[in-house]
User: Fold these one by one.
Assistant:
Number 1:
Amino acid sequence: MSDASTPQTASSSAAAARIADAAHTGPMLAADGTPLKKSLNRALRLQKMRALALIAPLLIFVLVTFIAPIADMLFRSVENQIVSDTLPRTTTLLADWDESGGTIPDEATFAALYDDMFFAKEAKLHTRLGSRLNYELTGVSSLFRKSGRKVEDMGEVYQDQFEDLDGFWKDSENWLSFIASDAWIAQMEGWKKADGNQPAFELREGIADALPTTAATYARFADFTQNVDEKNLYKEDPWAIVYSSLHTDLTGENGLAGYSGPAAAELTAAATAAATFETVNYSAAFEDIDKDWHDVEVWKTIKVYSPNYTNGYFLNAIDMQKSADGAEMRPENQQIYGILFWRTMVMSVAITLSCILLGYPVAWILANLPARTANLLLILVLLPFWTSLLVRTSAWKVMLQQQGVINDTLVWLGIVATDDRLALINNQTGTIIAMTHILLPFMILPLYSVMQTIQPTYLRAAKSLGATNWTAFWRVYFPQSVPGIGAGSILVFILAIGYYITPEIVGGTQGTFISNRIAYHISSSLNWGLGAALGAILLGAVLLLYYAYDKIVGIDNVKLG
């Protein structure tokens, strides 16, 4: 027994010696002396970096030309900065306005609206803002256009009185003498257009304390003149709003605040006279421009859409609207998008099923014919790809109309009466027929490529075991062709929900898809926010269906051959 245990003891001792030796010598080293594990990690890291460098150009191209534009368009579905950027002072004051009281905002809010509208008009932003708000309340677009044309008249009331008081207020150089810094004036006196950009405007030290509103308004005027209009500020007369700002400062509580700098005498005289000037009631002035400015709904709309981001587009996309009281359903006669989404999904499923019913037999025939004949017939399947989509759709319009080829043939065969022709155009029937024809090749090709891989010996073996033709097909052949059906169905369905040319031409009012409304908002109404929201919802629906398909069928079972 001791002899038998001797070899085992020796083997254990040798193993222990090797372990002790390894522990003594440390980790295994590479040829360059670094630990082998570290060297392997470095080699794998370099290999991954080389692989990433190879695909980097394609990745960047996809990001710039595909991902970024889609992300930018989807961002437009929640972006809403135009209201707060164009009417910053107005929206700030509206935050404290109680819209539930049924009264319009106070005079200070109308004064802020005058200030914002004046600069928006100069920057030509008031029409864009009107178009944005017109999506929510009809008539706002014309309201802003009209106000932009007449808002300058309010400031000219003060401008005329200052200029009539003293000719000093007519000259831009006189204004600059007390509102601009001496250093900037010295630079501008020697500046020429050939020298490049104008020196950036600088306010005189202390002028903002004496005339805060005037200084702020003149600074905005100077920035716009120099950087947008690119005109010589030294020779540009102030805008009318600068005069109204000066009147505000001179008649305010602080007055000139003990100002003793340049043009102090003229400013003091103006301060004395300003108390007797004719003033502007901004609320009444805006009402004179358009009575809608005293409509509470207009102000509610401006306040509701004041935040930089909004869910209003998405609410509109599901037939709801954003109001001061929260989200609410639109009137029943304005609910259209829910109907279009449902119609799009149902008709896309119908088109997919039609393609399966028509494409499966064709693919089976192609897969079981001799190669020469199958290739010839396959050319006929591919032939529609070589014909313009618009031409094919227009051809169906000709064929499906009541005096078209199909109805004439049915009348000639006696199937329908002359006065009882079928309505095949400008409805859902026409859309399904035309789109089935257009998308049929996308079903046949995946089916054909999968059926080609199914061995005929499987069917012969099933028949030899006693199966009938139907049993052999249903139990043996059809299950193997399901991956092709899945691939074709995904292709056809996703293409169908995004089509808008064919439904537009042959669908009429009953056969259009949600994609037609998306195209309309992107290209015609220019309501990109709503178009982006509709597109985002459609994308979400497709991804949801794709997820459901993966869970039920399994995306791994989809094959293209």
Number 2:
Amino acid sequence: MGMDKIMAYRFPETTMDDWKNKAEQALKGKSIDALNSHTYESLILKPLYTREDGKIAGYPGSPDYRRGINPLGYRDTKWHIAQQISWQSADELTSKLTDAFAKGQTAISFKMKRGNERESALAAARFSASYPFAVDAGSSQADFIAALEEAIEDGGITGYIGFDPLAEISTSNRDKPKDLGGWEKTIAETEMKHPNLRTVLVNVGVYHNAGANAVQELAASAASGVFYIEQLLKAGMDIDAVFSKIVFTFAVGANFFMEIAKLRAARMIWDRIGELYGAAESVRAMVIAAETSRFTKTLYDPHVNLLRSGNEAFAAVLGGVQFVHVEPFDSLEGTTPLSERVARNIQLILQEEAHLDKVADPAGGSWYIEELTEQLAEKAWELFGKIDALGGMPAVFESGWLKNEIAATLAQRVADVKARKQSIVGTNVYANLAETAKAIPENRDDRDHGIRGTRLSIPFEELRLKVAALETCGGKVSMGLICLGSLKESKARADFMEGFLAPGGISAIRSGMVLSVADAEAFIAETGLARYCFCSTDERYTEMGLEILSELKRRHPGVVFYLAGQPRPEEKNDWLEAGLKDFIHIRSNCHDFLANVIAEMEAAGND
């Protein structure tokens, strides 16, 4: 074939029907719908998206702002690197801020301490002329702003110093906000003095970190925003002034595309609300401060948190936010200068090496993301309407309705983690038994109205901490694996069992090749454990497993035996009658099995 023919060749067009036919052939007769998956938001995700699905709407910097609030994206206005600095004294805060700005930080951001408003204001004031604020001041807002105004020499304050009264009651025993008169006064007075400072905060992270799905987060953010609009309009503020004071903080989780779509949908919804209130286009552009999720972080294998935070920060930037905080990988046990610097450098890499500040709306045009954005916006608007019909945010706090809705989502998430339908690397899969950790106090009290933050990995962490306590009383907590037949025959299921036990902190001790009762007896005598699991192929189980189990159970009636995998249905009763306690397989609930075993070990130790 000559070069002319090669260059003239055109690939044949393939239709959606062609793809479906090929896919169904690979599925061996199953419908293409078998490849659909379901999300916690009750969305159905298809295996393939085309131009008929997601439609690109508008341009960056124009309503409905799903594509971002700046026409050129981050090319003319980069997102602010707003790492929250932890501190103990004003001198330490000053020193850390100085160091952070020298190493790439671009916003004044730190964790507020009640009663230390003046000290933190004095430390921050010297930087206020050069950098915007990114501070959740909580109920200290008025005192902090007043102290800051005393400390600054001239010029206005920019960025945001916010307070979310609804978020405060959502995490407390109270079901109604305090009198907002003082808060409204602070907002109005600050608007006059510092027109470029945002002071009304909608902290959506409290719902995310309690286990809410994206739709629930979006609906809560919209309902909270409307509550504040109504309060400030009643106080006499102009609608455009109100919109110019509001900033939203979102926690960004591990579901990469869902989180991008969530941030885009949030701007769509807020723009629609602004339009209905008659606000000017220029003030309807939602300002978002993002932080990486605490909900996804793990106590064990903390360096994996680096990867999680990198993924979450990447999603936040693609979602078009204005401020970003990356939680240090070891923040659960206390940060170090190294972890704080690495967290900041994640953002610098996204800017300087990944060049995410060079493209306007890099996620725009992805059919999948565009369709996901539309679906999230529709479902969130529907739920927002339901919250409004129930009386708004204070009412759903008082009734406990919102807490119950989020709790139902959390329960589903936790159930999936326990059964390992959802993986947490280093926790419920690929756990490292060599690691140790200290217990972290977690508020688990469900007796009040509060929406409590939690973490998805806690159930398995609690198991490992229990095992660590058992081991301090004597020896490694282990289970023996009786490997029937050759290494090739037993390896797959022995590997499975090792990975199945590790999330609970239980180590697996493998036997050599077991071909007889005598081999198994020798292994039990050598290890002296209370629990063993048979590992091999179904054929080996049928050939020798049942006979060996029967004899071992006769000789060691107090020892507990399990089997990795499931034999043929007609053989199950034979195994159970021979003394087997349970079958362990891919559909077994990993957490519940480990919890039962550990509880038995604790009971035996107490006896």
